[in-house]
UniProtKB/TrEMBL annotation:
Pfam families on file: FMN_red
Name of the protein: Oxidoreductase
Segments forming domain NADPH-dependent FMN reductase-like: 1-144
GO molecular function: FMN binding; oxidoreductase activity
Gene3D superfamilies: 3.40.50.360
GO cellular component, one term: cytosol
Length: 176
């Protein structure tokens, strides 16, 4: 199975990138996960603007994948502007149309990325994106700055078990 994981920020250091890197390694026997960076995309400024080669390559990788994982931080109760910009490009290229998407998020706080994920679900379900997400499912990595050991592994066995179950359900969702 081929998946892509989208890092939902353009920051050089990201706990969401770290989460996707953990998933890439941890679930390697179940799926190949290629991590895509939105920092490689230019800002979406004008609906009449043609997609660049970077956007086309990014979109083509999504179209070729069996599923997509988006890992978003939460900034001011929503997704970061660079992720919104990337989603605008994807609405133009139709890369997420009817694509199965898993939403995750890592944050420093106790609520995880609850509000950002709610907003992201609304955006993903918009007519121009039409992504398919698992109903009522979310993975929130709370206090993510303390969640990983020096090797990038999740420290808490319960959190890892929750992620394992969530990922297994996503694989079943893709295959359904």
């Amino acid at each position: 199975m081929k998946l892509v994981g989208i890092v939902g920020t353009n920051a050089d250091f990201s706990l969401n990138r770290k989460l996707l890197q953990f998933m890439q390694k941890h679930f390697a026997s179940q799926a190949e996960i290629e991590i895509l960076e939105i920092k490689d995309l230019e800002a979406f400024l004008d609906p009449n603007q043609a997609p660049s080669q970077n956007v086309k390559t990014f979109s083509d990788k999504i179209k070729a994948a069996d599923g997509v994982i988006i890992s978003t931080p939460e900034y001011d109760h929503t997704i970061p502007a660079p992720l919104a910009s990337a989603l605008e490009w994807l609405s133009q290229t139709q890369a997420l149309k009817f694509k199965k998407v898993l939403v995750t998020g890592a944050s420093y706080g106790m609520l995880g990325t609850l509000r950002a994920q709610e907003h992201l679900f609304q955006i993903l379900h918009s007519p121009s994106l039409s992504a398919i997400t698992m109903p009522g499912k979310e993975f929130l990595l709370r206090r993510a700055s303390e969640a990983f050991d020096d090797n990038g592994n999740l420290k808490d066995a319960n959190v890892q078990a929750e992620l394992d179950a969530y990922f297994a359900e996503f694989i079943s969702f893709i295959n359904a």
